[in-house]
Amino acid sequence: MTIGYGAPTDDIFYGGCASIATLLTLESFAGIILDSVCIGIFYARFARANQRANTIMFSNSAVIRKIRGHYYFMFQTCERRKHQLVEAHVRLYAVRHEAEDDADEPNDFLFQCHQMRVQQPDDDCGAMLLMVLPQVVVHRIDQWSPLFPPECLPHDAFDSKTCASYPDPTQRQVDIDNGSRDGGLPGVPKPYKEPTKAQIMNHLRKSGLEVVVILEGIDSSTSNTMQARNSYTDEDIAWDATFERCVLKTSRGLCIDFDRFHLLKPAPMDAKRCVMPSQF
């Protein structure tokens, strides 16, 4: 826009009309505001949080393996961008959608959402993740886990200290094992049976369980809150396996080989000894 700045009000440009100068000034401000709105819409369109969520990777398969006599559900996640998420944390939910035996309608399904406790990273500390390297998220299939077969639970009485009891808060067996909870005492027999691989597989298949993963964080570039989601069904679970190492050391430093990120390798049927974090 070209404006005749400094021209007198009685020249041929304005024709002696002072209102034209006012109109041109308003048009100039309107043009600036319109440009600002267009630039803001364009920036917001490409800086949306759902676009940022596409840079979060989840492993194609989850694994269930046995360590020191207990079964663990695991999956892997990582960040593909150079600028990492701030305050990244993860939550797990198990969604059941199974047909009830006493349902009146043939399409009457039971839909329930159960919270799953996270052992690594510890959800007591917020389940925080450092996304600069691939992270393995671990959930123990204990008596409070929705992946635990119900036939292994006591049927005579439910105690929130020993198993899941609605609407009491969900606990973790690892807290009792480490002595940070009062739910168990040395020498007292367990009120539940350790499930077998076949029982867990049958429970996942019968209940139609789907594990929903929600990873949240703040984009350090835009300060927008981002949420990435993924889910695993029984068809996406590999048994007695673990993840291949995908972090390589090169002359330029550490490099993540995303071609190996989804690869699995066989794991021992039961790791009796202490499993180091690098061996997950």
Key attributes of the depicted protein:
280 residues, alpha+beta, Immunoglobulin-like, five-stranded mixed beta sheet, four-stranded antiparallel beta sheet, 4 helices, elongated
Description:
By secondary structure, the protein is of the alpha+beta class. It has 2 domains: 1-46; 56-279, Immunoglobulin-like (Sandwich). The protein is 18% helix and 30% strand. It has helices at residues 18-46, 49-53, 173-177, 197-207; strands at 56-58, 62-67, 70-79, 85-99, 109-116, 135-140, 210-219, 225-232, 237-239, 241-243, 247-250, 253-256, 264-266. It is elongated and about 100 Å long. The model is unreliable at 185-189 (pLDDT under 50).
Ordered list of secondary-structure elements with their pairings:
Elements: H1 18-46, H2 49-53, E1 56-58, E2 62-67, E3 70-79, E4 85-99, E5 109-116, E6 135-140, H3 173-177, H4 197-207, E7 210-219, E8 225-232, E9 237-239, E10 241-243, E11 247-250, E12 253-256, E13 264-266
Parallel strand pairs: 2-9
Antiparallel strand pairs: 1-3, 2-3, 3-6, 4-5, 4-7, 7-8, 10-13, 11-12
